[in-house]
Amino acid sequence: MTRVSPTPALARLRGDFPPVGRARVLVHRGTCGNAVGAEAVAAALRASMPGAAIAEGACDGACWAAPSATVQREAHSHRFARLDRGIPDELAACLAGQCDDEYAGRGEYGLLERVGRNDGSFGDVIGRGAYGAAAMAATLRPEQVIEAVAASGLTGRGGAHFATAQKWRLAAQHTGQKYLVVNAEEGEPGVFKDRHLIEGDPHRLIDGILVACRAAGVDTVFVYVNGQARNARAAFERALEDARAQGILDGAAFGGDPVTVEVRSGAGGYVCGDESVILNSIEGQRPVPRYKPPFATDEGLWGRPTVVNNVETLCAVSTVFDSPPPPTKLIPLSGAVSRPGLYEVPIDGNTTWTGVLATAGSAPGLVPGILLGGPSGRFVTPEEYEVPLTMRGLGAGGAVVLPRDADIAEVTRSLAAYNMRESCGECTPCREGTQRLVQLLEDVPANRERIAALIETLTEASLCQLGGMAGRPVASALESFPEAFEE
Amino acid sequence: MGEALAAVSRLPRERTQLLPGFLAAQEALGWLPRAAVEHVSEHTRVPVAEVYAIATGYSELRLTPPEPGAWYVCTGVACDMAGAGALLEATPDRTRAIDCQFLCALAPVVHDDAERLYGRVTAEDLQARLAEAAS
After folding, report:
1. CB-based contact (8 Å) between B81 and chain A?
2. Count of domains for chain A
3. Is the pTM of this model over 0.80?
4. Which residues is A4 bridged to in the sheet?
5. Residue A107: predicted pLDDT
6. Alpha carbon separation from A12 to A125, A259, A291 (Å, rounded)
7. Residues of B in contact with A190 (CB under 8 A)
8. A31 lies in the same domain as A93
9. Is A162 inside a domain boundary?
10. Which terminus in chain B has less CB density within 10 A, N or C?
11. Hey, are the CB atoms on A281 and B120 less than 8 Å from each other?
């Protein structure tokens, strides 16, 4: 892969921030690290290595390693895991240059490239590819930008995998006030990719936002962040401030039209997975789905054309001018593996669950199934472990690996109960159906036919995909693990 | 209460500021007492009945006061499988179940009454932390 060459404007900006050559220790103090003692680790490192350059960054996706720190030297990156168990002498030696064991833990390029590898400052990311796409887009006409995205084949990574270029094109054909809404609500249990992307590399998201604005002719952006993702919001706001100060948002740095970005926090609700709920929420209406059509690209926020893109989608947009753009997908992986965390895998026809499980420290023989997509997902069974992964097949990508002794019936009931609690109550099939489904699951052998009929109703008649997909994990469990539901 | 109401009053007087208003008040008070909801209603010029209808649509808005000293155990899929149930059983008087906290790779996860998250928690850890918090 070759990265897009910096435009003259970007090259000038980068010139203002010469790379810092000094070796340093980057303590991963994201939400993950902080939950397992990274604060104490940072203090211990500072006490034991006076005078050393010790910086702080977010989680690098290796959540299993937390609390951890990465020694960064020229062309050398070595992560030291589980520092709560003590700080090894090798860390100081590595910092001093006495270490050949480079362990980075993932590929050389992709959306995670800078995540958790920087200290959150603008200077630390601008020399490493940040804003290459926005600077390039500013030199192109909107149609050319859309063409580039279409050529990359990029589809929405929130789970629906609608063609991103097509969505932008639909909005671009309208004139007048238009909006971009960034869906950073990420309320699906088992999914934690967007908050890692924002916390660890917020400038990549801004890069993608600017490209989207250029393509669709948008000047007003709302970023709707999950209410619990406080660190992600804080990191994004800081990055936004820095980008503003560098003239990146007002067109001064790269050219292009000024863009205003407003950050909003959500307050819970799996139903926000439906983009129209977020539109209602921003407007100050009840957080319930709208009838479609009209689609948001025609009538969205306040009746105006609105593009709604997921965080991972916009981060992937930042790579569309690279040649070729890395066709990778983020997989937040948890459950019965020894290395749970955020993985980025190439979707190139060679990646399988067997490979993913091996990377995460497990093996197919140990795993009876993988819950893919949480409460609206399905169970992947061992027969599929060798089948190459596809973008569409992965949905949003959230994977929970089941342990050998998993109680599938209990997992299924708990997913059904979650959908019931999260149903917003707007439409009858979902409001009543999700409740009835939970009741019927109490005695599966006696209710098989009624469960099947109810799932059909939920799927066909619900207003949004919360209800529409609520029966999916149940149907999948009943089909793949019938023995789990026998008397 | 005054600080919470002032935080709401600083927002533009527009309907789009309803949720930001709720969140500002809740941030200051820990929950949304009736007076705060009414102030959001008055400030955004949206009828109070409608404001309540909207507030009840968000699972993270608290319309009842939080239990003092209660901790919360995540019961998302990953935490459930990693022993969230055992954590709840080990500390029945002090902990409550909550939905996914999105820290699935560090399951099981709990948070304290100030929403500070702890990952890879064992029953002994949790009991020790609760004892420490109570003293």
Report:
1. yes
2. 4
3. yes
4. none
5. 45
6. 15, 21, 48
7. 76-78, 100, 104
8. yes
9. yes
10. C
11. no
